[in-house]
Amino acid sequence: MQKALFLAAFFFAYTIQAITGFAGNIFAMPVGTNLLGLESSVAILNAMGFFACGLLALMNIKHVNWRELGKIVGTMLPFVLVGIWLDTVLPLHVLLRIYGVVIVAVGLKNLLSKRQKFLPEWALWVILALAGLIQGMFVSGGALLVIYAVQKIKDKQQFRTTLSMVWAILNLIYALIALSQGHFTGEVVQVVLMCVPLAVLATFIGNRLQRRISQEKFLKLTYVLLLFVGAMLLITS
């Protein structure tokens, strides 16, 4: 029963992931943590994040913004490693709550504002570095990355495909770390294998659904998801 509930949550989460290019693991992680345990959920979702995001990126490879992909990964990755180290030496619950408040505020502001206000270039570099740091500390840097990407990648197809490629790369790194730490137990591998066909189906469904969403509605959906992500961070921190 626990596995069935997790698989249902996983399918929903990764359909959203395929539509927008982010938020899949944020939806699936709380359910997985409660049903399967933290270490197992992290290992499963990192493996499936690599698989599903990589699949979506390959399906839409012509829409990858390679320049932005190089900039994002090149900037985030060193800070991800710093964040992983900080997670082992600092108590970070208060920072996570502050981060949640900031994300909720950004989501509300962009939903309520009639005009999108652009941040200066230097601020975008700071946001990108912080996205890497938060990703390393909490595996939740996607919200800040979205704030950066919304301004730098205007086309929804480029947005979701480029972000999917970013997550495929980062999730592969996390999955390899989990593998080296022995988190891929027999039960975890079994759940991963059960998730594979669901990930394929969710990716194809999400890929088709996003074509029916206008650019304006896509942006609104993105900001609604930011609100949800921020709220989840506040609830779980």
UniProtKB/TrEMBL annotation:
One Pfam family cited in the UniProt record for this chain: TauE
InterPro entries documented for this protein: TM_pro_TauE-like, TSUP
Coiled coil: none
Membrane-traversing stretches: 42-61, 73-102, 122-150, 162-182, 188-206, 218-236
Membrane association type: Multi-pass membrane protein
Superkingdom per UniProt: Bacteria
Keywords: Cell membrane, Membrane, Transmembrane, Transmembrane helix, Transport
The keyword Ion transport is annotated on this UniProt entry: no
Location relative to the cell: Cell membrane
Similarity section: Belongs to the 4-toluene sulfonate uptake permease (TSUP) (TC 2.A.102) family.
Name assigned to this protein: Probable membrane transporter protein
Species the sequence originates in: Gordonibacter faecis
